[in-house]
Amino acid sequence: MQAITIPQYGGPEALVRAEVPDPIPGHGEVLIDVAAAGLNRADVAQRQGKYPPPPGASLYPGLEISGRVSALGPGVAGWSVGDEVCALVTGGGYAEKIAVPAGQLLPVPQGISLTEAAALPEATCTVWSNVAQVAHFQAGETLLVHGGSSGIGTMAIQLGKAMGARVAVTAGSARKLQACRELGADLAINYREQDFVQELKPQGADVILDVIGAQYLARNVDALAVNGRLVIIGLQSGGQAELNLGKLLVKRATVVGTTLRARPLAEREAVVAAVREHVWPLLENNRVRPVVDRVFPLKDAAEAHRLMESSEHIGKILLQA
Ligand SMILES: NC(=O)c1ccc[n+]([C@@H]2O[C@H](COP(=O)([O-])OP(=O)(O)OC[C@H]3O[C@@H](n4cnc5c(N)ncnc54)[C@H](OP(=O)(O)O)[C@@H]3O)[C@@H](O)[C@H]2O)c1
User: How far is the CA of 3 from the centre of ligand 1 (A)?
Assistant: First the structure.
């Protein structure tokens, strides 16, 4: 099969299409003919050599796919050859075929195309696991989403609204802020011109989904409400910062960091099952939609990475196999 490989770390040109051996589904795994793969910021970091795949994961990039089941490994129940699915994967999505543990598969929701479905697994699983499960979000609370127009952010706005949140977002341009408002954001803050701590006063944010890291840590703590929860899922500005513990004590605040990819299989499968139970009905009722900026052919993966690094996109970028 053809796959996008990374023979040497570097810029977008480091992504090289190559003929590689077909994957063979192991026990409990399903073989999928990939229709499309979603891009994630983590793929850029992996290509640059800053985010190595966890032990046992494919060395090729790609953390989510959609496609058709073409074979079942031993011990798989509940899926059949020909099923249209999407899946969370720990790597290897930029390829024509992939073997995936059956517990990481989701059916393509009714009303969503097979290609679009590739935009769903990483964003839905990341947002649900962090906002609902880690932060224990409650209806009526304020959710602040940094990077509201990102692949993750566009899903977080919609899921936040569906969960009964007052949603605030940050983004870096008027065009992006408008897109966030159209998705349901109640408060859209241009982080280049406004201070989100001021904009969230007086009550602050009950939950903050942060993708910036070090540069925002102090201001995120300042922006938290009493009993607030700051969930850090991205470190776009770095991972070393000073934390004023006194402010945490006074606010009875929680600061937590998580990553989906490095979780053990059983935990990833539990997240996927929860997403199927709680998020899939919202997709099938049209209350939540995947936001797709552009679809590139798999061979143009480098071009797709250039778009992601330009940050011109709104929502997800996909590769069609
Ligand atoms: N921990 C996990 O399990 C997990 C899983 C998935 C994703 N993530 C993380 O989630 C983040 C988003 O991923 P993605 O794939 O959705 O990437 P993406 O679409 O490329 O989004 C990155 C976003 O960051 C925004 N941004 C950059 N600097 C900012 C700042 N100072 N303040 C506010 N926003 C800023 C950009 O918006 P502007 O152009 O407006 O600046 C852009 O929308 C990444 O950091 C990724 O690593 C974590």
Answer: 25
